[in-house]
Write a structure and sequence with these properties.
- The complex is a heterodimer of chains A (about 120) and B (about 110).
- By secondary structure, chain A is mainly beta.
- Chain A contains no helices and twelve strands.
- In chain A, a hairpin with a 5-residue loop joins β7 and β8.
- The radius of gyration of chain A is 14 Å and the shape is globular.
- Chain B is mostly beta strands and about 110 residues long.
- In chain B, the strands form two sheets. In chain B, strands 2, 4, 5, 6, 9, 10 and 11 form a seven-stranded mixed beta sheet that branches.
- Classes of the chains: A mainly beta (about 120), B mainly beta (about 110).
- Chains A and B meet through β5, β6, β10 and β11 of A and β4, β5, β9 and β10 of B.
């Protein structure tokens, strides 16, 4: 079955701490991978995506993610978080062929950053 | 450019009733997807429409249906409501000529079933 697993449901960090949010997926075939973010009171928006090529992708606001095919993982990282990174983060996968906009999302990770 | 607009924003129904939710995509976007968001489950894909045709469907019972009009506006309907249908229903649109997987989400319609 196609699924996405996010290991941490809640993460609490202090400003300047490093962040890594885990994401593992189960999907047969070639995939595209995404991280979406929802800031308090705002819409879900795309943070970064991986289609092919360099497995280390960079997104907005200093976030990056690494695709490790052998581990079926796509972990999100940021070297130094800010209070404004407080949000809920969703990892998602879709089939690279014919997936269109059918994304399989994880349950989300709520990140709280304390000043 | 106006974003994705969903109406109504909030609604309360009782079991057995039906509900219709509406979504107006960003101008020029022809793909509209619907997702159900519940605490602990994340977002679950319901269906996607493109040029008035259902292009993909998730694993929801037949009580959940949708359609898209010629102006790309979309509606979803849930019949014979159950308590478990209480959720935030999100609509997302995407540009027609780029298969980027980037979805532009609306604020959602929060449905409470009593």
């Amino acid at each position: 079955a196609q699924s996405v697993s996010q290991h941490n449901h809640h993460v609490i960090l202090s400003e300047a701490a490093s962040l890594e949010l885990g994401c593992n997926y189960s999907y047969g075939g070639t995939v595209n991978l995404f991280w979406y973010v929802q800031y308090p009171g705002q819409h879900l928006q795309l943070l970064l995506k991986y289609f092919s090529g360099d497995p280390l992708v960079k997104g907005i606001k200093g976030f990056e993610a690494e695709f490790i095919k052998s581990k079926f993982s796509f972990n999100l990282r940021k070297p130094s978080v800010q209070w404004s990174d407080t949000a809920e983060y969703f990892c998602a996968v879709r089939g690279a062929s014919g997936g269109y906009n059918k994304l399989i999302f994880g349950a989300g990770t709520r990140l709280a950053v304390h000043p | 450019k106006a974003g994705v607009t969903q109406t109504p924003r909030y609604l309360i129904k009782t079991r057995g009733q039906q509900v219709t939710l509406s979504c107006s995509p960003i101008s020029g976007h022809r793909s509209v997807s619907w997702y159900q968001q519940t605490p602990g489950q994340g977002l679950q894909f319901l269906f996607e429409y493109f040029s008035e045709t259902q292009r993909n469907k998730g694993n929801f019972p037949g009580r959940f249906s949708g359609r898209q009009f010629s102006n790309s506006r979309s509606e979803m309907n849930v019949s014979t409501l159950e308590l478990g249908d209480s959720a935030l229903y999100l609509c997302a649109s995407s540009p027609p000529d780029r298969n980027t997987g980037e979805l532009f989400f609306g604020e959602g319609s929060r449905l409470t079933v009593l």
